[in-house]
Design brief:
alpha/beta, DNA polymerase, domain 1, homodimer, HAD-SF_hydro_IA (chains A, B), six-stranded parallel β-sheet, globular, 239 residues, 2-HAD (chains A, B), Rossmann fold, 2-haloacid dehalogenase (chains A, B), hydrolase activity, acting on acid halide bonds, in C-halide compounds (chains A, B)
Chain lengths: 239, 239
Amino acid sequence: MSLEGVRALVFDVFGTVVDWRSGVAREAAPFLARHGSAADPAAFADAWRRRYQPAMEEVRSGRRPFTRLDVLHRENLEAVLPDAGIDPARVPPAELDALNLAWHRLDPWPDAVAGLTRLKARYIIAPLSNGNIILMTDMAKRAGLPWDAILGAEVARAYKPAPEAYLRTAEILAMRPEEVCLVAAHNGDLAAARRCGLRTAFVPRPTEHGPEQRTDLSPDQEWDLVATDFVELAARLGL
Amino acid sequence: MSLEGVRALVFDVFGTVVDWRSGVAREAAPFLARHGSAADPAAFADAWRRRYQPAMEEVRSGRRPFTRLDVLHRENLEAVLPDAGIDPARVPPAELDALNLAWHRLDPWPDAVAGLTRLKARYIIAPLSNGNIILMTDMAKRAGLPWDAILGAEVARAYKPAPEAYLRTAEILAMRPEEVCLVAAHNGDLAAARRCGLRTAFVPRPTEHGPEQRTDLSPDQEWDLVATDFVELAARLGL
């Protein structure tokens, strides 16, 4: 297994680089308490996240023009609050806006910054996330993620796993698809990238969905590279 | 003069952050010599650059769909070579491609990296250049420019000084125009940004066009801030 000929590593971010569940729960906890909700913050994070794919599917299907993720997250927040016993119409919009920025303040997995810093010595490194540019930029600045550029859905104007998200990213990099490797904790994302000709590296994140996680614990295809974390990924590449 | 309320500094790049004329001349010199041209490398850089605005005007006018700058530079190279006594049809395309990457390998002005590094402590910093994403990314990686994100024409799908280039950049940053400040060595760029509501900082680069430069030596409006270089700009902002 090697990545010969690869010049750019692009990364899934939610789950692969950052721990979205803990971060959203941490930010939601004081909000829920303040509004008298008994909802468990981690369960609230899961519920908010469950609306993520259906919201993007509206765009992928063409039923809705491209809309950036901050807007979808904000709509999804209003949709999920009643399940936590909170009427969004009774919360000041500025407070909802502030909670929506939870997604900008997620912590990286412990190996992420060190691994990315090593990988950056040889490769162009960039997010290929469904998160929008300012979300990724705020997150990187807070967490010290040393990206060379911010790529992803808003730049490609397409949400993964639509082929355009991968192919336009390679085109923007002025590279052939096989010169670009997607690093992700999700087999489905890697499968879509491989169908477009990208190389693939799997880094499992077995607690992304909490201690009971059953999905994406192991590779379901022979990906070009498999590593336990980003530091091992760098070491496997001789960095 | 201050920039109160500003959260992002966006930068013109060619001329403001990097010395394009010296860099292109340095890269063109061995090419010209190899092909028996007696053209002066700096004059060749000027001639190549003179075709920059007309090429973008084809896009701004709507006569041509958005086309990234690497492609325009490559076309302009073929157009300008005959004036240097070189028939582009007799040069291997890979050699023209390589020379076209001269624009990816420009050196920053001596104060640029130090100034940007200080400014980054408080502001989101990003290029708002007509250069495309991979051009800006390659340049930053080689030169150590510590951008938080790569913005500009390819992300906004519009070439400066079209208003969309500035307004879409603010929208992508999820900021009001007055929360964004353009830093540029060109009065015309700043004037266009101001018409869109952005704040403005002028940093003259009196040798961008060589020792005989007559343009943009001083501010022609009361810009929000004027500084001699990026380190002074940082100092003026208390950084």
